[in-house]
Amino acid sequence: MRPTGRLHLGHYHGVLKNWVKLQHEYPCLFFVADWHALTTSYEDTQVIERSVWDMLIDWLAAGVDPSQATLFIQSRVPEHAELHLLLSMMCPLGWLERVPTYKDQQEKLADRDLATYGFLGYPLLQSADILIYRANLVPVGEDQVPHVELTREVARRFNHLYGREPGFEDKAREAVKKLGGKRGKLYEELRTLYQQEGKDEALAQGKALLEEAQSLSMGDRERLYGYLEGSGKMILAEPGALLTEAARMPGLDGQKMSKSYNNTLMLREEPEVVTKKIRGMKTDTQRVRRTDPGDPDRCPVWQFHVIYSDDSVKQWVQEGCRSAGIGCLECKQPVIDAVLKEQAPIHERARQYEEDPMLLRNIVADGCERARKLASETMRDVREAMGLNY
Ligand code: SF4
């Protein structure tokens, strides 16, 4: 997640609650994408530091548990940059220009000069962020699926270019020559397997081929098996997208909750402010007087009830609003109560980190160390596969 300042309830319902769930189901890595913040905000870097720490507190406050998941900061794991650089050498320009968010963002952020090298390359930096941990799943919304697809293509291209033993083809040709009558077929099949399918498929089919090649001597069979096993290595794993259903959190005005619409309730908003903001929410504009009946479908407060209230409260709102049996302030109170109840444990967890910044720094230092260990293992294999481990 990019460090863009304190998080609001839209982030909580849309992303963080899902992370909290995922951390019990998978080994998870969650990181602050501070270099990504530079791709669009390179002119104003002062705000990044504060945002990084605020955001980490928000994650922990939301229930992300550092004993379950690894939390770290991207720039503390420089291997991300090294892998990004190496991938940039082999990533065709067209692949990056085709990413749908590229033109989209340039148009949306027309006030900034985004005709930069870093901005074009940011999906590839994302690919490096994923591939460096050999992640097999990335939790994303629909709009990010093309980025995961690009990552798969990049991994495939890398494995195709560097995933074979140097001189493999000559060795295989030589081995197959010794295999007798079936060599033509075997050679062709092996070549295709290594190039297209990768190691697992090659192994499975290779074993089947060996069964077929009953006329071979034991030595030849073993040799062939050795090539199958040692070649067509998957250096970088192709990740899949773990689609999360986008829980749309309405803002105070009924539009999507977003800082740019100025309609947010912050994750760690003070209870008095929450109360004041919700009490001040606009309601059905056609309900002018208390005695006028209203329609919840025209009212942003109803959208909050949809998220926070149980069936009996919802029924109370529907009937009370349409019959003018309840007033709008009365109607807002269960929403206020529910938001405050949701936030109570969040405030509670945040307090320890707000009071003791070292606690947070230590958690992040541990996370960075764990991440770096994983990243450096991948980079060792990447350098070796590319012939750069001199
Ligand atoms: Fe909205 Fe509730 Fe007022 Fe109806 S009673 S207009 S749902 S705040």
Automatic annotation (TrEMBL):
Q: Which GO terms describe its cellular component?
A: cytosol
Which GO BP terms apply? Answer: tryptophanyl-tRNA aminoacylation
| EC number(s) given by UniProt | 6.1.1.2
Q: Which reaction does it catalyse?
A: tRNA(Trp) + L-tryptophan + ATP = L-tryptophyl-tRNA(Trp) + AMP + diphosphate + H(+)
Q: Give UniProt keywords alphabetically.
A: Aminoacyl-tRNA synthetase, ATP-binding, Ligase, Nucleotide-binding, Protein biosynthesis
Q: Among its keywords, does the record have Nucleotide-binding? A: yes
InterPro entries associated with the record: aa-tRNA-synth_I_CS (IPR001412), aa-tRNA-synth_Ic (IPR002305), Rossmann-like_a/b/a_fold (IPR014729), Trp-tRNA-ligase (IPR002306), Trp-tRNA_synthetase (IPR050203)
Q: What top-level branch of life does the organism fall under?
A: Bacteria
Kindly list the GO molecular function terms attached to this UniProt entry: ATP binding; tryptophan-tRNA ligase activity
> Gene3D superfamilies, alphabetically?
HUPs (3.40.50.620), Tyrosyl-Transfer RNA Synthetase (1.10.240.10)
Instruction: Give the matching Pfam families.
Output: tRNA-synt_1b (PF00579)
UniProt family annotation = Belongs to the class-I aminoacyl-tRNA synthetase family.
What is the protein name given in its UniProt record?
Tryptophan--tRNA ligase
Starting at the broadest rank, the lineage of the source organism is: Bacteria, Pseudomonadati, Pseudomonadota, Betaproteobacteria, Nitrosomonadales
